[in-house]
Amino acid sequence: MAILPALVLYIDDDPGLARLVQKALGRRGYAVETASTSEEGLARLAKGGVDVIALDHFLPVGTGLDFLGRLRSHTAAPPVVYVTGSAETAVAVAALKAGAADYVPKAVGEEFLELLGSAIDQAIEKGRLERARDRAQQEVREAKDRAEILLHEVNHRVANSLALVVAMVRMQANATVDPAAKDALEETQSRISAIAGVHRRLYTSDDVRSVEISDYLAKMLDELETTLNASGKASTIKLTAEPVAVTTDKAVAIGVIVTELVTNAFKYAYPDESAGEIRVRLHRIAEGRVNLIVEDDGIGWSGSGPAEGTGVGSRIIAALGRNLGAEIEYKGGVGCCASLEFEI
Questions:
Q1: Residue at a domain's end among 114, 139, 164
Q2: CATH code of the domain containing 259
Q3: Gap between the Cα atoms of 253 and 259, Å rounded
Q4: Domain limits for position 263
Q5: Minimal CA–CA distance to 79: which of 7, 4, 22?
Q6: Better-scored residue on pLDDT, 312 or 322
Q7: Exposure b/e, 22-41, CB count within 10 A at least 16 = b
Q8: What is the distance between the alpha carbons of residues 101 and 123, in angstroms, rounded to a whole number?
Q9: How many CA atoms lie within 13 A of 237 on its CB side?
Q10: Which of 288, 314, 319, 283 is nearest to 301 (CA)?
Q11: What is the pLDDT of residues 230-275, one digit of tens each?
């Protein structure tokens, strides 16, 4: 397939100079069409196929600056080389500000034609590079969109699979008679639910890199309270959390830590089937740093001495705390207060 020569549209009301330009640019390998007015130029441009415009300042009606103003409404308009009088530097500057790619001082003789040809060469090459850049940027955007759609789908499928696992563990817990095994299965169910909640947030979010933690914790704790109350306890969970975006891996760690601490408070803070309040608080303490607190008004635990139950939850909390770059602290006083500070 033959490659067509680049098409130059030369707009000038001087027919003699237009013929000279047409011959000179033809020798450089360009196809050249001419127009004597802005209206003729715009009409030819609307037909398409123009690679570059050479535009004289003085036209029968208005100036080339007026043409540049009207050219802004055209999508993917070709580059413009502006032709001005030799002493009209202010006009040249105005043309460049209006969107011209280059300018050439108009003169008589071969020097003007040579300068015009060189400026057109450069304008076409610049236009080619800009189009290549735009295509590359568009391809990157499309690839990013495809990757995000795929990642949303992956998170959706992971969340569905985890929900299925949660349901199976719940069924097994309901069918289990042994109290210790039942407790272990219910704890496992809560841990899986905390991780599944992150994936639910990811596939319904516009940003798969982070999770808005206050909204995530609110939904997670609501589900957790329902599950734990079904076991016979009637404690309540109160959440106070600032809207903070955290990375996905940290959101998983925070969710599991809160699940473990709240579950422990439900089981051990208020004995003898009594009920109370469990408070979860998350707030900023400095730029990029937050404090997470889970506390109750129960019998209290300072973090020392043997832990209730199997101790698996305490080991999980300690390990995930280290992943966050934090050590959990248990503060004395009424009830139990677990606190940790970390970077987000």
A1: 139
A2: 3.30.565.10
A3: 10
A4: 228-344
A5: 7
A6: 322
A7: bebbeebebbbbbbbbbebb
A8: 6
A9: 28
A10: 314
A11: 666 678 899 999 888 888 888 888 888 888 888 888 888 887 767 7
